[in-house]
């Protein structure tokens, strides 16, 4: 693989977190070559945070996130232009989310990049890492040994006895968990019916046998708590039924101990001009940051004072170096000596106290320290340039804490964000964050309504407005509950309990989002007894599959892009009144489906489960 940038001057990198509520999320393209007909070897795209736009050849011209049909063994050249001045790169991955092609990030409007690679049968998707949630499309390979692949898949299926579902958090008792959400950093939030939001870290999501005491108390709510969602800034939102204050409540991120009171700003007025400054972090004290407050790290594989880096290639993609074109300057509070050395690519990297400095690609904003302790080799540094070798949990708990629970005044002070109705039977339920428009979409089960709430709303009584209302969402029992937003800007809505042709049935309604953000004409995507009890929804765009938590069947139902259904996990696999599902969001987690066992009639079975479908 080779690639090159067409740019003037040195590239100043900006690193953002790749946001995708579904992990390996691949949007179905709006333009596609005829199946079996590979594209010409020269492909051109425009890169914009709203999606890749096909430019050439004609088969993909004008399409958003077009499917790239490639012939195995053929060498292709992809040239793309940065259309909006945001940080973008070009990545191709396989089914395991391993990067087969990956380029540097470039952030200048009009800058172009060319990458040359040989198409292989492993390729399944392409995307921009900083904007993975919206700039992502399929790769279809033709001309390979498809028959052999199908035989291997069939053999693997025969060897599989059933889904391997593990218990991450055993709640075992009243109150029970009802809904869950995974934030961009991979932390999993779940609601407790008695009025709590709890959180476990991305690392904890890979463990088993945790108890409720191992989950951090993010905040307490004033009534029955149903849906939960987390915005990219770490603020969590909960759907709460509480009389005249029924609606959506907000829990500031600060309560979870993930962001300092000053929002991660650098200390002192003169620090903004320094190459390396300090910032006060809630868990780790004074740590080194860059001029914009972004956290800096050291790498244990580096040798102190060696004047060289051990982090290149895939490592560098995840841990970009702090570079400087001029002599680095230090903030007033820094006692560490700043030095520089030349990297293999000719760029000048900055070191503090002899340790080369790096960013973490999944830190999104000032105050984030998501890279701390990863692999037990990446650490933030204090003002003397010494590694701070403790994790979030260790720092938050201290030597006196016996578990991860945050008690009393350490939890969030919840605030009413939006009133959704004062009627006794108003039940706000599912919440989804619309990243493109920075708003919440919220379902109200008994009214059969979907509301929209802009995140900058400041008047709870007037914050919400009706986004979509339809007779198909309102039933005599439980109407619209769960919802999810896809990278293609479709909103799927789950209607739990209705009657169709004399049978108990559920319904999935698909609503396209118009260019102005309004709701398009909804269509019935699938309905019938197969999806009776449809509640929580999770969309995995790699295969264009919708996963449905069918609460009244204690079953997870898979729905294909053409509406075909299949039960893929049942009560026999440990599901009990499962109410919600969500995919992980970070590497090592993005193919995990998390399932919430609501289990109100069997509270000893309430749990957060993990399955890799």
Can you characterise this structure?
By secondary structure, the protein is mostly beta strands. The chain has three domains: about 1-160, Cupredoxins -  blue copper proteins (Immunoglobulin-like, Sandwich), CATH 2.60.40.420; about 165-255 and about 410-610, TolB, C-terminal domain (Neuraminidase, 6 Propeller), CATH 2.120.10; about 270-395, no CATH class. It is built from three helices and 44 strands. A hairpin with a 4-residue loop joins strand 39 and strand 40. The radius of gyration is 25 Å and the shape is globular. The model is unreliable at about 1-35, about 155-160, about 255-270 and about 395-410 (pLDDT under 50).
List keywords for this structure.
globular; 5-stranded mixed β-sheet; 3 helices; single chain; Immunoglobulin-like; mainly beta
Q: Which SSEs are present, and which pair or pack?
A:
Blueprint: E1 2-6, E2 42-48, E3 51-56, E4 68-71, E5 75-82, E6 91-93, E7 99-102, E8 112-118, E9 125-127, E10 136-142, H1 146-159, E11 166-170, E12 177-182, E13 188-192, E14 196-200, E15 210-211, E16 216-220, E17 224-230, E18 236-241, E19 247-251, E20 276-281, E21 285-290, E22 297-299, H2 314-318, E23 338-342, E24 348-352, E25 355-356, E26 378-381, E27 387-388, H3 392-397, E28 412-413, E29 415-419, E30 428-434, E31 439-444, E32 449-454, E33 465-469, E34 480-485, E35 490-500, E36 503-512, E37 523-528, E38 534-540, E39 545-550, E40 555-559, E41 565-569, E42 578-583, E43 593-597, E44 607-611
Parallel strand pairs: 2-5, 4-10, 11-15, 16-28
Antiparallel strand pairs: 1-8, 2-3, 5-8, 6-7, 6-9, 9-10, 11-44, 12-13, 13-14, 14-16, 17-18, 18-19, 19-29, 20-21, 22-26, 23-24, 24-25, 26-27, 30-31, 31-32, 32-33, 34-35, 35-36, 36-37, 38-39, 39-40, 40-41, 42-43, 43-44
């Amino acid at each position: 693989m080779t690639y090159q940038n067409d740019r003037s001057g040195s590239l100043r990198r900006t690193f953002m977190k790749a946001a995708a509520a579904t992990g390996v999320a691949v949007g179905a393209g709006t333009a596609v070559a005829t199946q079996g007909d590979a594209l010409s070897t020269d492909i051109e795209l425009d890169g914009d945070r709203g999606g890749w736009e096909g430019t050439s050849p004609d088969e993909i011209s004008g399409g958003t996130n077009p499917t790239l049909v490639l012939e195995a063994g053929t060498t292709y050249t992809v040239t793309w232009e940065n259309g909006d001045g945001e940080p973008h790169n070009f990545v191709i991955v396989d089914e395991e989310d391993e990067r087969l092609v990956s380029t540097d990030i470039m952030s200048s409007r009009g800058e172009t990049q060319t990458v040359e690679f040989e198409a292989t049968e492993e390729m399944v998707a392409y995307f921009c890492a900083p904007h993975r949630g919206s700039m992502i499309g399929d790769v279809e390979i033709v001309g390979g040994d498809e028959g052999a692949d199908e035989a291997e898949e069939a053999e693997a299926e025969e060897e599989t006895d059933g889904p391997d579902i593990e218990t991450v958090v055993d709640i075992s008792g009243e109150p029970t968990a009802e809904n869950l959400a995974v934030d961009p950093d991979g932390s999993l939030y779940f609601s407790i019916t008695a009025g709590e939001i709890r959180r476990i870290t991305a690392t904890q999501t890979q463990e088993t046998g945790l108890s409720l005491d191992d989950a951090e108390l993010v905040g307490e709510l004033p009534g029955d708590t149903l849906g939960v969602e987390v915005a990219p800034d770490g603020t969590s939102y909960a759907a709460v039924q509480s009389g005249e204050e029924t609606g959506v409540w907000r829990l500031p991120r600060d309560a979870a101990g993930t962001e300092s009171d000053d929002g991660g700003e650098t200390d002192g007025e003169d620090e903004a001009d320094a190459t390396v400054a300090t910032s006060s972090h809630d868990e780790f004290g004074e740590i080194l940051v860059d001029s914009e407050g972004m956290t800096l790290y050291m790498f244990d594989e580096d040798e102190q004072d060696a004047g060289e880096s051990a982090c290149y290639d895939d490592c560098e993609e995840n841990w970009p170096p702090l570079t400087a074109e001029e002599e680095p300057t230090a903030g007033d509070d820094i006692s560490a000596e700043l030095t520089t050395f030349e990297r293999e690519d000719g760029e000048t990297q900055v070191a503090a106290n002899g340790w080369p400095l790096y960013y973490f690609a999944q830190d999104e904003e000032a105050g984030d320290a998501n890279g701390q302790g990863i692999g037990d080799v990446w650490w933030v540094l204090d003002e003397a340039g010494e590694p701070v070798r403790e994790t979030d949990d260790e720092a938050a708990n201290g030597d006196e804490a016996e578990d991860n629970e945050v008690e009393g005044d350490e939890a969030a002070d919840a605030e009413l964000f939006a009133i959704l109705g004062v009627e006794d039977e108003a039940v706000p339920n599912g919440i989804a964050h619309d990243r493109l428009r920075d708003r919440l979409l919220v379902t109200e089960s008994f009214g059969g309504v979907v509301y929209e709430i802009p995140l900058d709303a400041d008047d709870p009584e007037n914050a919400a407005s009706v986004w979509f209302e339809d007779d198909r969402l309102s039933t005599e029992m439980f109407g619209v509950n769960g919802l999810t937003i896809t990278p293609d800007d479709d909103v799927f809505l789950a209607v739990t309990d209705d009657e169709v042709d004399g049978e108990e049935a559920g319904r999935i309604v698909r609503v396209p989002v118009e260019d102005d953000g309004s709701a398009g004409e909804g269509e019935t995507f699938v309905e019938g007894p197969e999806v009776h009890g449809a509640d929580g929804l999770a969309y995995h765009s790699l295969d264009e599959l919708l996963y449905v938590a069918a609460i009244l069947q204690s079953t997870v139902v898979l729905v294909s892009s053409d509406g075909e259904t299949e039960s893929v996990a049942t009560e026999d696999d440990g599901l009990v009144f499962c109410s919600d599902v969500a995919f992980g969001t970070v590497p090592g987690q993005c193919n995990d489906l998390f399932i919430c066992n609501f289990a109100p009639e069997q509270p000893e079975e309430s749990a957060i489960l993990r399955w890799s479908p």
